[in-house]
Design goal:
The structure is a single chain. By secondary structure, the chain is an alpha+beta fold. A two-stranded antiparallel ribbon has the order 1-2. Strand 1 and strand 2 form a beta hairpin. The longest helix is centred in the middle third of the chain and has 17 residues. The N and C termini lie far apart (about 60 Å).
């Protein structure tokens, strides 16, 4: 095959035809997830809840201060200082061997 064939898109060369397609992300990630020891999302959530309840029941250090209780006017003042500066919405579409996936990404900036 010469440069002219490549420019014209003639890719009928036997060496090109023998190259297998690249693996999909699913083919790569599935073995990785099977090799590792990963907890289900429910198990992780249960552990997080247990840790949060343990932390509330017994503070980890004597320096830990009790929760701060604010009056209603103080809460209003704190809320009034936060303002939304910008919002960016992206519609993202990805196509691969498994099909088409679309999702929306929203980024909000506050000051």
């Amino acid at each position: 095959m010469d440069a002219m064939d490549m420019e014209k898109g003639n890719l009928d060369h036997p060496a090109i035809a023998d190259i297998p397609p690249l693996p999909s992300a699913r083919d790569i990630l599935r073995p990785l997830s099977q090799d590792g020891i990963f907890l289900s999302s429910g198990a992780v959530a249960a552990q997080a809840l247990k840790l949060m309840q343990t932390d509330k029941a017994s503070p980890s250090s004597p320096e830990t201060s009790p929760p701060l209780h604010l009056g209603s006017d103080q809460r209003d003042q704190i809320g009034a200082t936060v303002q939304k500066c910008s919002e960016v919405v992206q519609q993202i579409c990805e196509k691969d061997g498994d099909g088409v996936r679309t999702w929306r990404r929203v980024v909000m900036e506050y000051s």
